[in-house]
Design a protein that fits this description.
0% strand, elongated, single chain
Length: 374
């Protein structure tokens, strides 16, 4: 009997030692399961492991390990992981404080339409923290988050709408245009491009402006002439895109072929400056743009008629184009008309009319007219 009891005690003791050595709590078992799945590349498991490390659930707390697992999940496109990484880098938790990495991950979450990330970016722009302070940009991101149900963002929008109704209307209109653009509206795309070019009501973004211009051009089946002309300017000046004169000229030609007066006038300028052999081309482009009411093209058409450049000389026709441009307050045309009437060059001399045109030219900034009047 004593021998049996000794054996029983030994068995129980061994069982206790085994249990003590190998027993795992439900949390530990869950962590082990998550870890195995995470190592196999499962994003949800990677998020769970990172959260377990942060909370010390089923394992010892380890913020550095949490950071690594969030990074792996973010690399596979997890917006939740990007948001968590923003916070860890902002707090310096599990790593050194790193504002640049924090902003990189915040932007990822923002672009994937996470409302809390958009709200946070609105706060940063409102405070000028890590970014330039800009009320329009702040309101834009508050509106984005508010539309996705963020009550905090909705409260901010309501406050800002009261404080600055003009800015609210401008940003709200831009958001509406953005929605139309995302639905395939080419004119709305053009509106966004021009807003980003001008930097109003949001910060200027030349690269984003070019993106919208390209979308507008393609969406319109290459019929939106103003988009082609703006792309010409972007490529010609290297704004928002790498400078490429050849591509620029292709867009300029397409805009001109669509009878866009700014493009026609520009082609006229290029031809006029190129060589005397291209004066006829210059006159053709200027007169085409003039027919559509482009005031500087009207002036250049009149000037070439007056000089007989690229066309037969005709003072009466020149006067007609000068008058059209002058009535649109073109100071160059007003100055030339003033001189023509003062001198009676091809018209009946009229000092009164001449002085009147020179005074209008001076008011519109003509230095030649201002000098003559003095």
């Amino acid at each position: 009997m004593k021998t049996f009891l000794k054996i029983l005690v030994g068995v129980l003791l061994a069982a206790g030692l085994f249990t003590f050595a190998f027993y795992r709590t439900p949390q530990e078992r869950a962590f082990a399961k998550h870890l195995k799945q995470a190592q196999a590349g499962q994003v949800e498991a990677q998020l769970a492991v990172a959260q377990d490390y942060l909370a010390g659930q089923g394992t010892k707390p380890d913020a550095a390990q949490a950071l690594q697992w969030y990074q792996q999940a973010a690399a596979q496109g997890s917006v939740e992981a990007a948001w968590e990484l923003y916070q860890l880098y902002t707090l310096g938790k599990g790593t050194t404080l790193d504002e640049k990495s924090a902003m990189d991950y915040l932007q990822i979450a923002v672009q994937q339409n996470l409302p809390q990330a958009q709200y946070e970016l609105g706060n940063l722009y409102a405070q000028g923290k890590g970014v330039v302070q800009h009320n329009g940009q702040a309101l834009y991101w508050y509106l984005q988050a508010a539309q996705k149900g963020s009550s905090a963002a909705q409260a901010k929008v309501a406050t800002l709408a009261t404080q600055d109704a003009v800015l609210f209307d401008e940003v709200n209109r831009l958001v509406q245009q953005q929605q139309s653009a995302q639905g395939g509206d080419g004119q709305a795309m053009l509106f966004l491009a021009q807003a980003y070019q001008a930097g109003q009501p949001l910060l200027a973004d030349e690269a984003l402006a070019v993106e919208w211009l390209k979308k507008a051009w393609e969406t319109s089946n290459k019929t939106l002439a103003s988009a082609a002309f703006e792309l010409y300017r972007a490529y010609d000046e290297g704004k928002g895109v790498e400078e490429n004169k050849e591509t620029a000229q292709e867009f300029l030609a397409q805009a001109a072929q669509l009878s866009y007066p700014l493009a026609q006038y520009q082609l006229g300028e290029l031809a006029y400056a190129d060589s005397p052999a291209r004066l006829e081309d210059a006159f053709a482009w200027f007169s085409n743009a003039a027919a559509q009411g482009h005031s500087q093209a009207q002036y250049m058409t009149g000037f070439m008629l007056l000089q007989g450049q690229g066309t037969a000389k005709s003072v009466p026709l020149a006067l007609r184009f000068f008058e059209q441009a002058a009535e649109q307050e073109n100071p160059s045309a007003q100055y030339v008309l003033g001189q023509i009437y003062l001198k009676g060059a091809g018209v009946k001399r009229s000092p009164r009319k001449g002085r009147a045109w020179l005074e209008r030219a001076a008011q519109n900034g003509s230095e030649e007219a201002q000098a003559w009047l003095k």
